Amino acid sequence: MQRNPFVEFVCGGGAAMCAVTFTNPLDMARTRLQLQGELGLRGDCKTYRNVWHCLYSVAKQEGLRGLQKGLVSGGLYQQCSSSSSKKHITMVLLQVWVILISAHLFFLRNCRLP
Known about the structure:
about 110 residues
């Protein structure tokens, strides 16, 4: 049984986006911990003791939306990177190419110029 490459492309990206949903709060905490040193030099820094304190503080002050900041960009990145093996890209582009050529030929056959 032959698999549809477009379905594999979408499923691979969907799985990666599900994984990003669960790991994004840790990514957000890592980024804030990395930046707190740079922001401390300017004087406007929230001091987090560790990852758990960062997650707790963000959840308390900003809620669930604060924990999921950057989810869209992370999800799009993972969608593109994890579902883009050479085989899948080639097969999807081939299918798109066939559709475009078919549409072009249909247009040339059925449209009459004055």
